[in-house]
Design goal:
globular; Aspartate Aminotransferase, domain 2; alpha/beta; seven-stranded mixed beta sheet; Aspartate Aminotransferase, domain 1
């Protein structure tokens, strides 16, 4: 059996042809494929606007800037996420706070968030960054109600969840569509659903935020005649605030556009792989995460929980199955451990970390490879 990673991109000849065609075009960056990718992605997600950026971390940083996070800001996020979900607050000088997770879903626990908010004076907190961990969508309708009660904004970290949804009594809540969060972000890292090498996207329904994001991702500069304070001619631009060079290239957008056409097929395959895992581990000592009916999990990751996780990790590697741990709780990382806002215990997050393991989950995973993974996991568990 060849080595089996936990995640891997799937590049077709159509993807290669799209990139080659982009390389032949006069514009390698700041050209028409950027706008085309943004428009197609917004249509896929169901949002009004999309802004393509260099990566998911850049997307988070720009969102925090657009919402005016500063050294007086206090923001709550999940400890079970990649560090960037909290780092974006720190980039702007703000304070990150962590609330514990729900041990059944591994998502940020809304009751823990509520308790943290209510432990401080009204107005202390400014926003919440919930994370659609592993592809399991957060109930943003509930978070919107909580945020409105306390005058907070929401950034949805949907990097793991394009295509995820929750069917509610009122509507289908599509991850990243802007119905309940001011902003949402996505990543196009190679192991994600849509790969563009590196890359990210911000979605929103707010035209003011959209316009500001477009300026912030390009050094704070605009040539838009409607936004200029003066106009000296066709060459004229204005730097209206301090921004960054967080643009995505036409080459990457060409690959992203091609990958987007296959997004639903890839999502179907991920869900089929998850169903096979669910069935195989039923009744075993291996704990899995089972979304209830009406939750459309996007399965960026397939998470299992076992005793002796380190031993299973090593046993799988001995058979060239390269499982991974997602994630080390952010509040336990040395940088955050030394900060007074984050130096506290979160028992559910820490208990999950001691048991959680991501096993191979990607559309190109064959049934034979998956059977081999299942066999080795069950051999160890039993």
């Amino acid at each position: 059996m060849n080595p089996i990673p936990y995640g891997r991109q799937q590049i077709s000849q159509e993807d290669i042809d799209a990139v080659v065609e982009a390389l032949k075009h006069p514009y390698l960056t700041q050209g028409p494929r950027v706008a085309a990718f943004e428009e197609a992605f917004a249509d896929y997600i169901g949002s009004k606007y999309a802004v393509a950026v260099a990566n998911g971390t850049a997307a988070l940083h720009l969102c925090a800037m657009a919402l005016d996070v500063n050294d007086q800001s206090n923001v709550i996020t999940s400890p079970i996420t990649f560090a960037a979900s909290a780092n974006c607050v720190r980039y702007c000088g703000g304070n990150a706070y962590f609330a514990d997770i729900d041990p059944e879903t591994i998502l940020l626990d809304i009751e823990e968030v509520r308790a943290l908010i209510e432990s401080k004076p009204r107005g202390f907190f400014n926003g919440i960054i919930p994370v659609d961990f592993a592809g399991y969508p957060v109930d943003l309708e509930a978070y919107r109600a909580l945020a409105d009660e306390h005058d907070l904004w929401i950034i949805e970290d949907a990097c793991h969840a394009p295509g995820a949804f929750i069917n509610t009594a009122h509507t289908q809540q599509q991850s990243g569509n802007g119905a309940f969060a001011e902003l949402a972000i996505f990543s196009f890292h190679p192991v994600k659903h849509i790969a563009s090498g590196e890359g990210g996207m911000i979605t929103t329904n707010d035209p003011k935020l959209y316009n500001r994001l477009n300026i912030l991702r390009t050094h704070g500069i605009t040539k838009n005649p409607d936004l200029l304070q003066e106009n000296h001619g066709g060459w004229y631009y204005e730097m209206q605030e301090l921004g960054y060079n967080y643009r995505l290239t036409d080459i990457q957008c060409a690959l992203g556009l091609s990958q987007l056409k296959k997004a639903e097929a890839g999502l179907d395959r991920r869900r089929a792989i998850a169903r096979r895992y669910d069935e195989a581990f039923k009744g075993s000592p291996v704990k899995t995460i089972q979304p209830p009916p009406g939750v459309g999990h996007a399965y960026h990751l397939y998470i299992i929980q076992v005793n002796n996780r380190k031993e299973l990790y090593d046993a799988l590697r001995a058979h060239q199955i390269y499982a991974q741990v997602h994630y080390i709780p952010v509040h336990t990382l040395p940088y955050y451990r030394k900060l007074p806002t984050t130096a506290r215990s979160l028992p559910h997050a820490e208990a999950y970390y001691s048991r959680g393991l991501s096993i191979p989950m990607f559309p190109a995973l064959t049934d034979e490879e998956q059977d081999f993974v299942i066999e080795k996991v069950l051999e160890f568990a039993r």
